[in-house]
Amino acid sequence: MTEDAVDIVESKVGQVVVMVLAGRLDSTSVRDFSARINAHFDAGTNALLMDMAHLAYITSASFRALALAHRRAKDCGTALALCGLNAIVNELFDLTGFSDSFEIYPNREAGLVALAKVTV
How far, in Å, are 15, 20, 46, 78, 110 from residue 12 at the CA level? Predict the structure, then answer.
């Protein structure tokens, strides 16, 4: 991973797809990020948890991508949640009002427990 890129590692825990984001989610990496999320919507994924514990920074372009993903998740009936926001990323979510738009959990375990309930 280069300094200006985001690394995305995906796994599946039960019916929940977990996307672990690390690095910087910015205008150079948001296209790949959006494509990967949309592929899950297209595949009919029931629940998607974005683990942002290792995300160093997020830009306005990425917030737009998250807003579009949130809308698409609702349209597709996919449960979408975020977890593990560090202090910097959490502050950006608060400043932009995105904290009120997403289900946000303190860590991956809490997110998995919550999403497991909606995939039953």
Answer: 7, 11, 11, 15, 15
